[in-house]
């Protein structure tokens, strides 16, 4: 008991409603009774147990030496649909007083009968834990729905087959609260066949009957199709009369339609026919012996498809009541029949055969597993059961926390090579990204930007992202107040005096912010990256070209002509190579990706690039990485070029994007770019986060200098 955290005995209430469920519950009750140091047992009897027409089967509970704590008369006679509903209602009225008095820790409920539904409903509403036996199985009639309804009310589940276990998991029940134990009745069945059975056969069928030379018939109404099930019962009796073998017929259960079935029996004179013995009830121990040694069992009882398989006795399963049940090879199904002929043929096929014993429903060790499971129940755990639903997208758009989390921007990154659009969250996380090559003409480029932004905005709705605005990061000199690209280098053609804000704002009906890609990088580092909390720092970005951004006293510096941080176009050598801006000797002309590619191609054309251990595939363009690789392998020409690059451009090895950060003293704040020294080099925030930062800066600080 220490294992489950309980410091007292577990008070278990077992409620039994009829002869069938008692056959499954009795083995558990015997097991509980043998361990009084762990359990207290209360027995509640209700339903057809207490009706004389159905054998007063409560007596067998007393004969098994169980003290019946409470007897509840809950059956409203009528044996029709309304009577079943009224019986459930009557049970619901009476059960609360009993449960209040007993105060069980857990109630054990079996199966799929309407009485069991009343028990489970009462216990669930009174906060009593429920252990459901035989959940997860599939069959026909209303029992299927009732069984699954009880499953949803129950806190713990004992199932009999692997398929039933999987059904329970599929129904979102917690796997940790499911026990695959097998059917408790199998604990008796698998040890019962060697007993003295001939005396039992003679007692119920007559002295002249031999083993394997009689039939056991047990057929119940199908509550979802009563008329058809009565017709099927009529045909069954006709076939049995024609087959002319001694037959033990058990009366049907108390479901709607049973009264009509009894009338059919009496109309055909079954109770007085010399070949038939009609009985209301057979004790389970004796019933086991009768079906184990029968030539055949016929009907639609779950006993036929479940328990009888343990003996290999042939079974004819009639109609749809057990459709979906797992069965052994001993079961022959007759789904429908218009005449007795089909049933008669099935009798000729099955009678007298012996099939292999089936253990689909158990191995004879269910009760020890169930007792161990009961001992493991922790009464300190929360009573409210949890369902293990598969992951689904929750509709939480009206949740304030979710709204704050899903505020987003459209980020547009327009570089010398690629055009990228993304949905970026306020935390700087890229939700979805789209990439295309940057077209060469203005017309194609602006149309592609609009198309990609419209597609991204539509996708944002599906992703439940709320777009606040659009941030555009572009190469060139940009007037952020007007949203106009004033001038661009040759890296982006036809990109001078371009109004980017107006067409995007008119198309998307969103505010649009535009800035130079280096400035966007500085904003991104301030908000998401290495510049968080720093008052002053410079960002340097390298790619096809070179750019940068300056943060001074937490503010982005644009300069009077919007080129304060055009770091790539600082001239370091008056007689240097041509730059894409039209000048000579700019850092970009030495250290950009395009400059390194130019130098690599020049060496390659002169057959001076490749050294031992290096090759360039024919379909691959020569680029900066080949130049760096050659230098690493000892190519003196490549090393000289890179030495010049580092000297003039202070570019980090392998031409990766870098960030130059510094925290300055009051005196050093007066210094300008040429005097800045870098103390740290760290990875920059992504270009899409950079462009997103423009939109976020505009949305959060509308009076910011970039406007």
UniProtKB/TrEMBL annotation:
Limits of the UDP-N-acetylglucosamine 2-epimerase domain: 37-375
InterPro entries per the UniProt record, alphabetical: ATPase_NBD, ROK, UDP-GlcNAc_Epase, UDP_GlcNAc_Epimerase_2_dom
Annotated signal sequence range: none
Binding site for Zn(2+): 569, 579, 581, 586
Molecular-function annotations in GO: hydrolase activity, hydrolyzing O-glycosyl compounds; N-acylmannosamine kinase activity; UDP-N-acetylglucosamine 2-epimerase activity
Domain of life: Eukaryota
Residues where an N-acyl-D-mannosamine binds: 477, 489, 517, 566, 588
Catalytic center residues: 517
BP GO annotations: UDP-N-acetylglucosamine metabolic process
Annotated protein name in UniProt: Glucosamine (UDP-N-acetyl)-2-epimerase/N-acetylmannosamine kinase
Species of origin: Piliocolobus tephrosceles (Ugandan red Colobus)
């Amino acid at each position: 008991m220490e294992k489950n955290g309980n410091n007292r005995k577990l008070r278990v209430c077992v409620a039994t409603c009829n002869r069938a469920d008692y056959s499954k519950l009795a083995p558990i009750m015997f097991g509980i009774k043998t361990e009084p140091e762990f359990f207290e047992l209360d027995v509640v009897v209700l339903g057809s147990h207490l009706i004389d027409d159905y054998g007063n089967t409560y007596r067998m509970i007393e004969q098994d030496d169980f003290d019946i704590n409470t007897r509840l008369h809950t059956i409203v006679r009528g044996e029709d649909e309304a009577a079943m509903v009224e019986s459930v209602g009557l049970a619901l009225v009476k059960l609360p007083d009993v449960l209040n008095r007993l105060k069980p820790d857990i109630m054990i409920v079996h199966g799929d009968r309407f009485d069991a539904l009343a028990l489970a409903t009462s216990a669930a509403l009174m906060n009593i834990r429920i252990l459901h036996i035989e959940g997860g199985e599939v069959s026909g009639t209303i029992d299927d729905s009732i069984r699954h309804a009880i499953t949803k009310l129950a806190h713990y589940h004992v199932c009999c087959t692997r398929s039933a276990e999987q059904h329970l998991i599929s129904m979102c029940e917690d796997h940790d609260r499911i026990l695959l134990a097998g059917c408790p009745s199998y604990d008796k069945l698998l040890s019962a066949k060697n007993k003295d059975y001939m005396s039992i056969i003679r007692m119920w069928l007559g002295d002249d009957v031999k083993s394997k030379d009689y039939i056991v018939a047990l057929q119940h109404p199908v509550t979802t199709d009563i008329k058809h099930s009565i017709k099927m019962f009529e045909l069954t009796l006709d076939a049995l009369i024609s087959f002319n073998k001694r037959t033990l017929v058990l009366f049907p259960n108390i479901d709607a339609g049973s009264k009509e079935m009894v009338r059919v029996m009496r109309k055909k004179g079954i109770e007085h026919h010399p070949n038939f013995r009609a009985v209301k009830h057979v004790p389970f121990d004796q019933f086991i012996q009768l079906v184990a040694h029968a030539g055949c069992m016929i009907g639609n009882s779950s006993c036929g498809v479940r328990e009888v398989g343990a003996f290999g006795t042939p079974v004819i399963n009639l109609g749809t009541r057990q459709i979906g049940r797992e069965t052994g090879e001993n079961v022959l199904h007759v789904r429908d029949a218009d005449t007795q002929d089909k049933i008669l043929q099935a009798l000729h096929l099955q009678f007298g055969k012996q099939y292999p014993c089936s253990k689909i429903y158990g191995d004879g060790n269910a009760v020890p597993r169930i007792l161990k499971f009961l001992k493991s129940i922790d009464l300190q755990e929360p009573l409210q059961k949890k369902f293990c639903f598969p992951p689904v997208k929750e509709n939480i758009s009206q949740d304030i926390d979710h709204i704050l989390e899903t505020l987003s921007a459209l980020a547009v990154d327009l570089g010398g090579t690629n055009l990228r659009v993304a949905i970026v969250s306020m935390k700087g996380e890229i939700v979805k990204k789209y990439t295309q090559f940057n077209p060469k003409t203005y017309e194609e480029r602006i149309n592609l930007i609009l198309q990609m932004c419209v597609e991204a905005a539509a996708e944002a709705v599906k992703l439940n992202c709320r777009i606040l605005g659009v941030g555009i990061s572009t190469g060139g000199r940009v007037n952020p107040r007007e949203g106009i690209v004033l001038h661009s280098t040759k890296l982006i053609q036809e990109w001078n005096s371009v109004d980017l804000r107006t067409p995007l704002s008119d198309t998307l009906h969103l505010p649009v912010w535009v800035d130079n890609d280096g400035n966007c990088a500085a904003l991104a580092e301030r908000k998401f990256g290495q510049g968080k909390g720093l008052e002053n720092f410079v960002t340097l970005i390298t790619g096809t070209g070179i750019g940068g951004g300056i943060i001074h006293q937490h503010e982005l510096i644009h300069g009077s002509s919007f080129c304060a941080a055009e770091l790539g176009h600082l001239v370091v050598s008056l007689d240097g190579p041509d730059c894409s801006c039209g000048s000579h000797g700019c850092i970009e002309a030495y250290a950009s990706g395009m400059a390194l590619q130019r130098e690599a191609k020049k060496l390659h054309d002169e057959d001076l690039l490749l050294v031992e251990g290096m090759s360039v595939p024919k379909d691959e363009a020569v680029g900066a990485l080949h130049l760096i690789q050659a230098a690493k392998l000892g190519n003196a020409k490549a090393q000289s070029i890179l030495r010049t690059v580092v000297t003039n451009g202070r570019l980090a090895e392998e031409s990766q994007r870098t960030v130059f950060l510094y925290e300055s003293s009051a005196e050093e704040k007066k210094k300008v770019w040429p005097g800045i020294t870098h103390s740290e080099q760290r990875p920059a925030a992504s270009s899409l986060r950079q462009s997103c930062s423009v939109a976020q800066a505009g949305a959060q600080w509308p009076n910011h200098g970039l406007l």
